Amino acid sequence: MKALRYFGARDIRHDDMPDPRLESDRDAIVRMTACSICGSDLHIYHGHGFSEDTGFCVGHESVGEVVEVGRAVTQLRVGDTVMMPAAVGCGACRSCLAGNVIDCAYQAGGCYGLSANLQGVQSQWFRVPAADMNAVKIPEGITQEQALMMTDAMATAWFGARNADIVPGASVAVVGLGPIGLMAVEAAFVMGAGLVYAIDPIAERRKLAEDLGGHALHPDTALDSVKEATSGRKLDCVVEAVGADATVDLALRLVRKRGTVSVIGVQQSRRFPFPLERAFAGGLTFRTGTCSVPEELPALVPLIRAGRLRPERYISHRMPLAQGKEAYRLFDAREDGALKMVLKP
């Protein structure tokens, strides 16, 4: 089969790879019908990945059709159309059955496409472990592209907004307006935010946030603008969707006393100088962590069905898998309005 494989910094190749096979009676094989590039995939692309492996297939956002199931799979049939949450669990322990694959009791959690341990989904076919849990039938009324956005990006945006303690009437900032940040702006309004500041250096992305109802700011002037607008009180909640030291620091400076900062950007440095004394004095709540997609789906499905959330609007490019190398380049360079890059066979 053909797959997008990582061979080093900025070296993603559309290359041959062995077809996947069932490794357990609980596995399924899925034919990819659409996959997408996530911002966290760029860490691998830049050569600062999550393992020392090379040659593995990348990607963790995909939808597809079940083409083979193991003998112990009971919830899926060949021909089912499914979406694959980015992170997997054992599918048997109490945490996984509750949707929290991050806290798998058997430490069987993992994410597609970070190493050869679990090959990625930017390929013609791929293996799904514990398929009864880790492949979710696409609900009626949800399109494949909407489902694709729910496999990680939309779920993470919702998780980040939920962790920010957004309540009706709250004042909110979203720092970083990539696809997840833009989805977080939308999520904040659905949760009832009265005012959402949308902060990013790229003018085109700020305009997209304004179209959602956000008040767009450049990061260089954001703090002063917020202080002036709030008479120094600052904001109730902040969602940080970049993961850089500078943007996390900005998020902590934008929040009011007893406010909440939620960081969902994948950390780009190993040691962030957290201002504990300032946070303590201000009584801040600070949350971060990885989203468990199955935990967020029950809230997202009805909102997307009703058109209150429209994650598919952030798809900027639809390209063949064979052009994956160029798709990564465009996404990394933020060229041509690149947001969500969807790849199809």
Protein described:
With 345 residues, this protein is α/β, with parallel strands linked by helices. 30% of the residues lie in helices and 25% in strands. It has twelve helices and 17 strands. Helix 6 links the parallel strand 10 and strand 11. The N and C termini lie close together (11 Å).
Largest sheet: 7 strands, mixed
Got a strand count?
A: 17
How large, in whole angstroms, is the Cα Rg?
20 Å
Rough shape? Answer: globular
Helix content: 25-40%
Beta percentage is 15-25%
Which structural class should the secondary elements be placed in?
alpha/beta
Arithmetic mean of pLDDT: 96
Q: Please tally the helical runs, counting DSSP H or I stretches of 4 or more residues.
A: 12
Query: In whole angstroms, how far apart are the ends?
Result: 11 Å
Report low-confidence residues grouped into runs of 5 or more: none
Name the helix and strand elements from N-terminus to C-terminus, one letter apiece.
Answer: EEEHEEEHEEHEHHEHEHEHEHEHEHEHE
Summarize the SSE layout with pairings.
Layout: E1 2-6, E2 12-16, E3 28-37, H1 41-45, E4 61-69, E5 81-84, E6 87-88, H2 94-97, E7 110-111, E8 125-128, H3 131-134, E9 136-137, H4 144-150, H5 153-163, E10 171-175, H6 179-190, E11 195-199, H7 203-211, E12 215-217, H8 219-229, E13 235-240, H9 245-254, E14 255-263, H10 276-282, E15 285-288, H11 293-305, E16 315-320, H12 324-333, E17 340-344
Parallel strand pairs: 10-11, 10-13, 11-12, 13-14, 14-15, 16-17
Antiparallel strand pairs: 1-2, 3-4, 3-8, 3-17, 4-5, 5-9, 6-7
Helix pairs in contact: 5-6, 5-11, 8-9
